[in-house]
Description:
By secondary structure, the chain is α+β, with helices and mostly antiparallel strands. The chain has helices at about 70-80, 180-195, 235-255, 300-310, 315-325, 330-335, 340-350, 355-370, 385-395, 400-410, 415-425, 430-445, 445-455, 460-470, 475-490; strands at about 10-15, 15-30, 90, 95, 105-110, 120-125, 130-140, 145-150, 155-160, 165-170, 210-215, 225-230, 260-265, 270-280, 290, 295.
Amino acid sequence: MSTTTAPAPYRIQGRTGEWEVVIGLEVHAQVASQAKLFSGASTAFGAGPNEHVSLVDAAFPGMLPVINRFCVEQAVRTGLGLRARINLKSRFDRKNYFYPDLPAGYQISQYKDPVVGEGELEVTRDDGSTFKVGIERLHLEQDAGKSLHDQDPNWTYVDLNRAGVALMEIVSRPDLRSPEEAAAYVKTLRQLVRYLGTCDGDMEKGNLRADVNVSVRKPGGPLGARCEIKNVNSMRFIQQAIAYEARRQVEILEDGGSIDQETRLYDPIRGETRSMRSKEEAHDYRYFPDPDLLPLELDPDWVRAIEATLPELPDAKRSRLMRQYGLSAYDATVLVSDPERAAFFETAAKGRDPKLVVNWVSNDLVGRLSGEGKDIADSPIPPEHIGELVQLIEEGVISSKIAKTVFDRMWAGEGAPRAIVDRHGLVQVTDTGLIEAAVERLIAAHPDKAEAVKAKPQAIGWFVGQVMKETGGKANPAAVNDILKAKLGV
Ligand code: ADP
Ligand code: MG
């Protein structure tokens, strides 16, 4: 069923031979919460500068953080979705550094004891094949504010709307080996948090973004020194940044240089990465447990209750669709990419040939919808009608060709397919007497062609075409074939 053929390994060709790229990602996913991690201020997008800032977010003296239970729940939910260990005891630390958009002078994060420990994600490529990536941890932390450098020629302004918003940082093991694998990992992770409802995955708004760690080595050799490319916020940029960075490192190493572990930025306009800060200037964050917050202790019953509310997750849904309906990995992957599409398929497929249904849903219907920039939720055709259309084909009432005409009329709002077929007289001719008469007439008129078929049975196609023409495309092709074969003796 599932053909998980691993693609050829990604290699960079250098002067001294081939190189392998090693990638590990730190994904920041904003918790889909209406309030911030330690204050009641709103997280709504698009407000005017500093409209959503509480005294806690602005770090006024004497203000105390209060943990948002909902955010913790979303982190646990995501950890369960990653099949990761949930740490019933975790802690918040202060990560100390000075920056104008961080008024407290420290970020509250989880350093030694994160709320979620090791897990594993099964990543799906576009073709439906899969591979596994180790998850090191998931921890909760605050987002920082934003410095605005483009408002005034002499001044920098600060917008604290984002300060204190809850982020889940999901850290992968260095298990990824190509730009495509890295993008597939982020796609799969994004799909998971969207299924779980813990993050909206909106990369354009920066609600999901990745720090990309890249190193190179000779295939199978020891891990090389890595560079970290900060805050990359599109699948395309992730791939471009990795390809550029890996090539840059290979060139340095082949020239006899070494890689300095450093933080870099990706510039999508120039298509290159640039140094932000080197290891020598690296921060010493002086982590220590935040004295204003108690250690986080979770009740195992609470964790179990959260687990009981998890929806069917993408990888499980995909395997089930393959098993239950005999779909290919590719077809199942396409359906799972949108839970509404999968649900639409399952409703339409009740009691029908699933392979036919998946083609009508994923090709005809989705193709038409995306042509108009619409989702399956906007479909003018309900799933039951797609099911009925497939039933008409299965029963031999209409041919697949006529079904396209019926589909066009359904799309145009003419209603249920059976009624359309009746109204427009589109019923397929299965009257064998009628087909036989046409066949006999054609054989008599074209004895040469009939002889040709006896010598070369594939030539029967010409007769099939003629019968279809005579019946206005409505003859049942299977019946036409059977009758032709009988009459021609092939
Ligand atoms: P830090 O806290 O300094 O960022 P971590 O150990 O947490 O360091 O690693 C951060 C990320 O770097 C992880 O996603 C990990 O998979 C990745 N990583 C570690 N070593 C390498 C390497 N040699 N090449 C590429 N990525 C790496
Ligand atoms: Mg890091």
